[in-house]
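Re: that chain you flagged

S.,

Sorry for the slow reply, it's been a week of failed gels. I finally had a moment to sit down with the sequence you sent. For the record, here it is as I used it:
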Amino acid sequence: MIQLHATLHEPNRKRQSKRVGRGDASGKGKSGGRGTKGQRSRAGGRRGMLRRSFKKTLQKMKKLRGFTSRATRLETISLATLDRVAIEGVQITPKFLAKKGVLAHPEDGVKIVGQGALTKKVTLKGIFASKTAVAAIEAKGGTVTF
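Prediction finished late last night. Pasting the structure tokens below so you have them in one place:
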């Protein structure tokens, strides 16, 4: 017959927590394992102390310097890229460039810069261009309007 004292204990059983603050004979007598005096030794005294180590945490964090503007920037496209995707006789707009896969965000605006060579006559509408790019486009008989 199995008796209560003869049963094996469960190996993964959690140990019961010590009953603190129950008199001197409890093994954690008088101050109940809380040390002496101070806010943290009192009942309910730990409340609001979660931020106790926040200063140390804050000091360990990387300090990000400078400023990041939320304003959108114009996407730049070189004359060489424009020459690659442009079709003569077709008006080139930001939406056209987005369809060709050159622009990610056509609504932010586009600027053509004068890097590379242009071999086609192109008509740009709603697109900014640098002075060198405008000179190159007009030299081939194209136009730039915004």
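What I noticed first: Residues 75-145 form a domain with the Ribosomal Protein L15; Chain: K; domain 2 fold (CATH 3.100.10.10).

Talk soon,
D.
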